[in-house]
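Researcher: For the record, we're logging two predictions in this thread. I'll number them. Prediction 1 follows.
Model: Prediction 1, sequence and structure:
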Amino acid sequence: MPGSVHAVIGSDDGRVSEEALALFNELKPQGDAEEFTNDLVEGTAANAEEAYQVCARAIEALQTIGFFGSDKIVWLKGANFLADDRTGGSERAKQGVEDLLDVLKGGTGEEVTFLISASAIDKRRGFYKWLQKNAEVAIFDKIDVSKDGWEGEVGRLVTTRARELELAFEDEALELFVQMVGEETRQIGNELEKLNLYLGDRRMVELADVRELVPLSRKGVIWEISRALESRDAARAITLMDAQLERGESAIGLIRAAIIPTVRNLFTIRVLLDAHPDLPLRNAQSFTAALNRLPDGEKAWLPRTKSGSVNAWGLFFAARRAGQVTTAEMRHSLEVVLEADKCLVTTQLDARMVLHRLVAELTMGRGRGQGRKSA
């Protein structure tokens, strides 16, 4: 589309790079003279003066006529001086961007297409506001893992990218992959490529495959501790927690990141299944939809995403173990966890001993016995 301006921006560096390259290949003029009609200006600047010079090179490219007057594209690639930081906030860098904006406002001719890609941009400045009104802008931001429900968003992204490679995940394998890789699109792509090569003709990714190939992150360890507790595998849970303690992780951090959420999810799903035994447990999508259809009074206590919908990710995976526990047992488990948390905060007892004793109580049937008595 000659004479147009395009911007690909966002905090997801990997996705921005991929999408910008794809757009460049789509927009660039084709033919034997391709090397004379495609101007690529590297946008990485180490300081304000370099940022100014990058803008100057982009302006020169925009104002240079294409080979034999043909159409051309100018790509300012990976500009890193558009944010409100030390370089982007300097007067010299701002002047360069203003000069570039003046050229774009004046028009570059119908034969020139301008593409800019950047991972960060100050949306308060005139350059971004002009792009919003006059350019085709595509924004690719990272999924915010500090917000409830991020696992579901990343899970959908992983599933989509895996489908492009004709891969599919078992439920537990997908959950562990999400916890290990997080929101980084580039790492997601790299780890999927590794799995693709490793599996060969086999197309189903299993839990063992993820454990074998994907580097274990802190989130991955937390996930593995949770699954060990759900499976009543005390030895594995203790081994994983001891390894984290040796690395400097606090006992309070472990109990609140791995143990409390696991017990809370098991209690929650057990109560839900007692009231609604027909909840669909075959796949996460139908399970989530069913929870969101519950009357407001019955779902008011459930965890929520920022948008207000039920955060069903952890509940769905806990549901696979809920048949092994009773509501009374899980109520007792919550009390046990609360007591352990108090011990860690208010006493001088050995933290490792407190965690070991807690894992033993949660996995070796003390809560189950309590549940039978209550029943």
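Researcher: Logged. Prediction 2.
Model: Prediction 2, sequence and structure:
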Amino acid sequence: MPFEDILYEKQDGIATITINRPKVLNAFRAETVEEMLTAMRDAEADPAIGVVVLAGAGNRAFCAGGDNSARASGAEEAGGYGGRGLVGLPIEELHNAIRDSRKPVIAKVQGYAIGGGNVLATVCDLTIASDKAVFGQVGPRVGSVDPGWGTAYLSRLVGEKRAREIWFLCRRYTAAEAYGMGLVNKVVPADELDAEVEAWCQEILALSPTAIAIAKRSFNADSENIRGIGALGFEALALYYDTEEAKEGTTAFLEKRRPDFRAKRAK
């Protein structure tokens, strides 16, 4: 399958989807998400695949979230957000594809997992991080938010107080801090990350795929109500993105200045 924004490899029961935009810290645009969805669906349909790994190209970032340049352009031919999905790109569908896959999905985080990248790591079944990884949110700084899995489900992983701290303060956390709050399963030295992820994949592949699928469905059932919350939230987010307040976040980011959200907020 010809891809422009991702690398997709299947080998020995493992499907690896790598965001291949290292020049922008693997930030995703509409085309990136579409390609990731295609790869996820292919991996799900392939009976030879037992586990999926999500990764980012290079050694600086797993994913820095949505590409604000693409968001500002809005041009579909440039991979912008205009006219794509509820809020311009099908990120909600990608989150659901990760959840709905009968196969465990592992986030391999070697660097920054910020904004939408942090949400991707949250939604994955397991997260293994390099000791150089950095986690955190940036949405409210750029006029954005994740109203579904990235908030409500995050609170199940790290607790209400921590989840609110992550979103309300937009701080950055080391891999060790992320492990301590339950956002990460294991932290290893950077040069051992590939081997550690491979080892976890092999352990999963040695187990009953049907039992694993049932276990995943059972885990998901307990938090499935968040899907409805997210669908409602993304409808509201689509309206928010059209406001001057939200646009101020993108404009300020591109102009490298501090945004003045309150001046743009609707009276």
